[in-house]
């Protein structure tokens, strides 16, 4: 008797957990960026989180994004340029929510899969959280250099998941 589905290529663990992170990200109500993060110990899923307003507080879909403007220095053709950037500060970032809703004991030596490369604040918190590895997919160049340096100092593996394709129902274009 033929076993149905036997020919279907089996997902590797990285794809499996990143797919879950992307599905979790669809819960986010910030139209600018849907971020999902999951905590994995061994092959066990110990927590999921996405970016959002605190529980019981109006989110971006109800109250609109809370926009903060800031200037960023960018090198272009050897010249320093000031570029005005906007970001939404209404939400608690996915990585921060993941830390709020998991136990320290569960985090020791664990891996975080996150759809987006962590910002500086999240990376700083992750660096102090007991985790030993971060796997991300979409880049966040603004903080990349200092985040990579920090992870190196802490001996936390920091991996970009190359060649990965998000599930079609979970991918979105990101406003940067
Ligand atoms: Zn927002
Ligand atoms: Zn962050």
Automatic annotation (TrEMBL):
Binding-site residues for Zn(2+), renumbered to this chain: 93, 119, 122
GO cellular component entries: cytoplasm
GO molecular function: dCMP deaminase activity; zinc ion binding
Keywords for this protein: Hydrolase, Metal-binding, Zinc
Keyword Hydrolase in record: yes
SUPFAM superfamilies: Cytidine deaminase-like (SSF53927)
Every CMP/dCMP-type deaminase domain range: 12-174
Family listed: Belongs to the cytidine and deoxycytidylate deaminase family.
Name used for this protein in its record: dCMP deaminase
Phylogenetic lineage: Bacteria, Bacillati, Bacillota, Bacilli, Bacillales
